[in-house]
Amino acid sequence: MSVCPCGGVPDGASLAACCGPALAHEAWPETAEALMRSRYTAFATGAEDHLFRTWHPRTRPQDTSTDPGTVWTGLGVERVVDGGPEDEHGVVEFTAEYVSGGRPGSMHEVSEFTRRAGRWMYVGPVPQ
Length: 128
Description:
Blueprint: H1 20-23, H2 32-45, H3 48-54, E1 70-82, E2 89-100, E3 103-116, E4 119-125
Antiparallel strand pairs: 1-2, 2-3, 3-4
């Protein structure tokens, strides 16, 4: 059993027990954090369809493809504000680690999520 790329929820859970059902269209993440984790996993595994389906149509770019030269190596969730099963909006702050062109890097974002037709959707980064 390998740990889900997002780190697994609960900690150390496998892809099948964590983000796998969302990427396989079997379940929709129930919280903003779970959606963010599934999107990270989609970047890590190249599941471009999941990225497209979970990006709010109002803010979704034309191209949602992943960069095959980037290897995502870790995710740290730093803060979650709202975004629970009963909420309509949520914010998740995270740092994603990666290697691109042989060089390590990190991406920090405070992301906004909202419900659309009862499902959590990624809106985009919160303006700083």
